[in-house]
Design a protein that fits this description.
Blueprint (H helix, E strand, L loop, with lengths): L5 H11 L4 H8 L3 H9 L6 H11 L4 H7 L6 H5 L7 H15 L1 H7 L4 H11 L3 H24 L1
Helix pairs in contact: 2-3
Amino acid sequence: MDNITLEQYLKKLRKSYNYSQEFIASHLNITRQTYSHYETGRITPPVNSLYNLAKLYGIPVENFLDLAVTYNINMDFAQNPQRPSSSTDSDELDQYLNFINAPENSKKMKHLDRQERLLLYYYEHLDSRDQKDILSFMQLKKKNRIAEHKNS
């Protein structure tokens, strides 16, 4: 996520999920125009909106805060951070967004919800043996659920 602005990130996420500005605005309980201003940089979203966006997309709120907050901190602290960097999380998000937005994948991803997209993303990055294991596991889970339901 290096060199990306908050407004670019908001737009990139929204488009990757095929959400309209109207949908996001209604989720945040704001007008579409206000949300549009978030994506153009005219307005910086308040923290509660960033939190709700993080929940909507299923990502850490820090992804938004790192882009929205200007840090004025003691340099001793900055040189010795207290928590590990979350760059691997943002790298994985970038890889995921690139995957679902790739022309060869965007059509098949268009009608899937977030969980289905994540499942397909991780599944396609496994080797064929692991894919077979996952399918076998899912089939077994389905059979067990059916058996549980019959016994209830």
